[in-house]
């Protein structure tokens, strides 16, 4: 069979002339989206200093995340209505417009608005990228392409702070966003030129999913509020409300003629439904790394913010290295790697807690292991979600992968705050008290990874039928 021959060619299968340009466009879009998350963190203090918006400092990131989740959720429906290439071009163009807004911002409110626009464009880019992987490349190459897409987040760790830092150092933070706007505009032209044209799969325009989007926005607002609320009971209530709102959205979506998510979303009897659970759970387990581990490194080991940030980058490097290393694994290994992923994450999260106050190299090794865990399983879980889609739902199934990833990160951020506050976290804690919190936070998220192991077993059982 052709797919078997392509699989035996390994990575060279992606070097075909007709696939190089589309692959470059897809990788460029993910890199643009991911590096802007880190670039803003670098230039934000300079922006706040010039525009005097310290009280609004968290809102640019919140606006970006919220609109990104909404866009990723709608990516499947928009793609089915207008086609994948048109949706990708629109996402890149919207991203460019958002960057222009920020570059001319006279006040902090403009920065927040620009980040909201950028987030929507980036969400479309990330969501439709998986759709284009499915429609552009043979199934034998999906795991390798998805591994490369994941690897762009590691590249962004180096590029994002570097770009932002260079412009901020010389007092030209606006120039960073001008450069981003130009790159996004070039990406738009490249996508129109090189991405394959795909026809819409729906007849006419789908009805605007206002009620479902309202549930999603309310859930994001609830989870975001939980992240900044100090009272543990209030945090727990807001997180529970967010989960209820998301469940209500899924139930409403199943009855809609044009769905945002697959009709079997979160079902335990189909590969797509179980795969979505697994993506959500490993994303939740991964999330404490971004928020609390840098604080623990600074407080317990006296590292400066930059060193702590690059210490946490070990997880992204582990994700990329592992996903590329296993991308060519044979079919017989896919199920084993799907189980090995969350299992490695569970062990590494417990180790990160135990080594939090030990030698830094041991802690870095545990952080690296968390990334390796998600890396070895990610592409194969995504492949199961995409290949197991019901007829007519291939597009929304593919776009659901980044949607579940973003939702998992958002829920995980709120949950990590709840766990940390319950454990007594506060800035300036004595060393022993901070070490106790540093043990509890990552170790608690091993529960999410352990449930992910159960989902992996279920996914493998369904694949064996």
List keywords for this structure.
Growth Hormone, Chain: A, mainly alpha, globular, 465 residues
Record the SSE blueprint.
Layout: H1 2-8, H2 17-51, H3 59-82, H4 84-103, H5 108-136, H6 139-169, H7 173-194, H8 210-228, H9 232-254, H10 271-286, H11 288-291, H12 293-301, H13 305-326, H14 331-354, H15 360-387, H16 394-422, H17 431-444, H18 446-463
Helix pairs in contact: 2-5, 2-6, 2-7, 3-4, 3-5, 3-8, 3-16, 4-5, 4-7, 5-16, 6-7, 6-13, 6-15, 8-9, 8-16, 9-16, 10-15, 10-16, 10-18, 12-13, 12-17, 13-15, 14-15, 14-17, 14-18, 15-16
Short description:
The chain has 465 residues and is an all-alpha fold. The chain has helices at 2-8, 17-51, 59-82, 84-103, 108-136, 139-169, 173-194, 210-228, 232-254, 271-286, 288-291, 293-301, 305-326, 331-354, 360-387, 394-422, 431-444, 446-463.
Care to describe what's here?
By secondary structure, the chain is mainly α. It folds into three domains: 14-206, Growth Hormone, Chain: A; 207-257; 267-465, Growth Hormone, Chain: A (Up-down Bundle), CATH 1.20.1250.20. It has helices spanning 2-8, 17-51, 59-82, 84-103, 108-136, 139-169, 173-194, 210-228, 232-254, 271-286, 288-291, 293-301, 305-326, 331-354, 360-387, 394-422, 431-444, 446-463. Helix 3 (59-82) runs antiparallel to helix 16 (394-422) and helix 13 packs across helix 15. The mean pLDDT is 88.
């Amino acid at each position: 069979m052709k797919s078997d021959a392509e699989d035996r060619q390994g990575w060279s299968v992606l070097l075909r002339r007709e696939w190089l340009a589309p692959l470059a466009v897809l990788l460029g879009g993910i890199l643009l989206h991911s590096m802007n998350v880190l670039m803003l963190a670098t230039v934000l203090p300079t922006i706040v200093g010039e525009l005097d918006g310290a009280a609004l400092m968290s809102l640019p990131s919140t606006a970006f995340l919220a609109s990104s989740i909404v866009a990723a959720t709608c990516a499947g429906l928009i793609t089915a209505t207008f086609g994948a290439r048109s949706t990708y071009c629109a996402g890149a163009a919207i991203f460019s417009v958002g960057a222009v807004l920020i570059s001319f911002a006279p006040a902090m409110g403009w920065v927040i608005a620009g980040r909201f626009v950028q987030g929507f464009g980036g969400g479309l880019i990330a969501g439709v990228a998986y759709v284009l992987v499915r429609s552009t490349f043979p199934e034998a190459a999906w795991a390798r392409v998805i591994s490369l897409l994941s690897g762009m987040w590691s590249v962004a760790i180096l590029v994002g702070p570097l770009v932002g830092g260079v412009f901020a150092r010389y007092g030209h933070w606006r120039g960073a966003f001008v450069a981003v706007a130009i790159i996004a505009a070039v990406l738009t032209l490249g996508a129109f030129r090189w991405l394959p044209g795909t026809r819409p799969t729906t007849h006419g325009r789908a009805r605007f999913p206002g009620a479902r989007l309202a549930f999603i926005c309310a859930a994001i607002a609830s989870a975001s509020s939980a992240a900044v609320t100090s009272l543990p009971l209030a945090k727990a209530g807001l997180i529970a409300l967010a989960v209820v709102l998301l469940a209500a959205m899924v139930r409403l979506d199943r009855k809609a003629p044009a769905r945002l998510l697959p009709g079997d979303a979160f079902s335990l009897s189909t590969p797509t439904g179980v795969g979505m659970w697994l993506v959500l759970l490993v994303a939740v387990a991964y999330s404490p790394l971004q928020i609390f581990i840098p604080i623990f490194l600074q407080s317990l080991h006296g590292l400066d913010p930059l060193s702590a940030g690059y210490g946490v980058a070990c997880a992204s490097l582990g994700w990329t290295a592992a996903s590329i290393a296993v991308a060519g694994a044979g079919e017989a290994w896919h199920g084993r790697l799907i189980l090995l992923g969350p299992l490695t994450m569970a062990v590494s999260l417990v180790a990160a807690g135990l080594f939090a106050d030990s030698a830094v190299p041991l802690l870095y090794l545990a952080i690296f292991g968390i990334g390796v865990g998600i890396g070895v399983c990610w592409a194969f879980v995504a492949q199961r979600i995409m290949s197991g889609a019901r007829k007519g739902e291939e597009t929304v199934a593919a776009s659901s992968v980044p949607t579940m990833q973003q939702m998992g990160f958002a829920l995980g951020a709120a949950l990590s705050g709840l766990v940390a506050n319950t454990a007594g976290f506060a800035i300036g804690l004595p060393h022993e008290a901070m070490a106790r919190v540093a043990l509890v936070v990552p170790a608690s998220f091993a529960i999410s990874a352990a449930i992910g192991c159960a989902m992996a077993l279920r996914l493998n059982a369904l694949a064996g039928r």
